[in-house]
User: What shape does this take?
Amino acid sequence: MSRFDMFNLEPTHRLMRGAAGLLLGLTLLVLQGCATVASPDPRDPLESFNRGMFSFNDGLDRVVLKPTARAYQATLPSWARKGVGNFFNNLEDVWSALNNGLQLRGQEMGDSIGRVMVNSTIGLGGVFDVASDLGIDRHPANFGLTLGRWGIRPGPYLVLPLLGPATLREVAALPVDQQGSLLTHMPDEATRTGLTVLNVVDTRATYLRAGDVVDGAALDRYSFTRDAYLQRQRNDDYDGDPPPEEGTEP
Amino acid sequence: MILNKRQVVTALAAVVTLSAMVFAPAVRAEDEAPDALIKRLSVDVLDSIKADKAIRAGDMARVVALVDSRIMPNVNFQRMTASAVGPGWRQATPEQQKRLQDEFKILLVRTYAGALAQVSDQTIAMKPLRAAPEDKEVVVRTEVKGRGDAIQLDYRLEKTPGVGAGWKIYNLNVLGVWLVETYRSQFAQQINAKGIDGLIDTLTEQNKANAKKG
Assistant: This one.
């Protein structure tokens, strides 16, 4: 396999062109339905666009992803789903190790490397999370978080087609995270696609209960999701201990 | 008189034990430290759930009873609701304020009932408290440890005026997300569009819909 094969430029380009077309189409669709926003939030200047995208994603989720995730949950026993989740977490830990390194977090990087070594071997390719049983904690980190920890501000909130809540910073980091994902580098296209779909369905299945909680707790699911997402991101940027925000009562 | 090391240790231990016996009641009469309160409360609630099959089966009446008897006495729920409602709170009549609190509480209890029903072998780990003795408001940071990743769970507490009144929780943070902040813009939207009564109606309807889902 040559270096260029490894980066798999051709299909990626095709995918990007497809995504750009889809994005343009959706944008036009959403802009047609644009309405003025009642209570504007300075972090969300594109709220009416985002709301449109949110309901598009939501509709797709209701019709396709959620039913698939429910069927998956009903079909596979929980130990098997646990194995699937562990397998993808193990792949992710490789990228987390590198990003923890980029954030100059020695302990977290060491933990992540240790986890991959233990889980890939004793854990049979990551299916068993032996490292957690040994008390080696996970420290998930992607490139967006690395930028955040180096002080890059998140910028405006954006709801992406299919991918959901993000900020401008996450969008900028997305191509890097894409390249950093081991899934992207699977040589066989069918395997790559199959694993990506499995990862998406498995992840959605783990959030089924959380989704029900949000349905019950939120008066407006768009605002609820946005405000929770932005707080969570800020919390992660400051490693769980952000300074109080200006203009808000603590 | 020359004491050997062992005798010194024994003597010290005796002094420590004695002073503990003498001073312990005095210490208890003082305010319990905020982190000690959270620790006691967390252990108490976790133990209650572990011992209660009905709660783990999702029995709402039992969850409400637990919340009312153990958690609410340590919460300033009026401040929590007022803070989520924002500037509109002061325009609300006492009757409206009471209804807002009642409906908001039902909404939250139902939200967290599902999480409480999931409790199995979790434990609470306390993070170091950074607060000066004279502080009137503190953040107590904890982690829930169980299967999977640890869950960040922080509390904001205020010192109630008066001796012996203790600390009260007025905000809660799960995984980096503060509860009050998450409701602030949703509540503001409702108030801007339909006023305080509109918000009360929306909360009531949401609670009715949730109750139907069981």
